[in-house]
Every structure is written in structure tokens, then in C-alpha cells.
Specification:
single chain, mainly alpha, 82 residues, flat, 2 helices
Length: 82
């Protein structure tokens, strides 16, 4: 989830980013090392099982791994240290 993908919906839905408790879960979709998709799937399943077992209603917000400039994604090998 990009910062935009997390912050903008929270501001629109709840009036700010600090008005409700939030547990961010970020998955690296652009830079090596990328995690195996099976591990990402298992993480989602574990989170779903945990909240399904509870008695409270919990909203989930998801965002894609889109990048503003896909062809210019930095890599560790070419990072400048800035």
C-alpha cells in the first residue's frame, strides 16, 4: 500500500489519519528482494483468520502496488544513498 493509498482513504472516510486505530501491512511489490507470492497469500489468510475469529467488525482497506514511474524503480545496486 502506497502512502497515498493508505492516507487519502483514511482522510476521506474518517476525517484524518489519526482518528481510528490502523495497523498497516505493507508488501514490497517493486524492489528486490521480492517475497514469494505464496508467503503474501499465507499472510493474508492468517490476518483473515485472526479477525474472523473475533467478535468485532473490522474494515479492511487494500491498495494496489502501482508505482508512478515503473521503468525508473530504484534497485539496491543503483541506489545513490540519498
Amino acid at each position: 500500500m502506497s502512502p497515498y493509498g493508505a492516507v487519502q482513504p483514511l482522510e476521506k472516510l474518517f476525517g484524518g489519519i489519526d482518528t481510528v486505530p490502523v495497523v498497516p501491512v505493507f508488501i514490497n511489490p517493486v524492489a528486490a528482494p521480492l517475497g514469494p507470492i505464496r508467503r503474501v497469500r499465507r499472510l493474508g489468510e492468517a490476518i483473515g483468520r485472526y479477525f474472523a475469529a473475533g467478535s468485532e467488525s473490522v474494515p479492511f482497506l487494500g491498495s494496489g502496488g502501482l508505482w508512478h514511474a515503473p521503468r525508473t524503480v530504484p534497485t539496491l545496486a543503483t541506489a545513490t544513498g540519498r
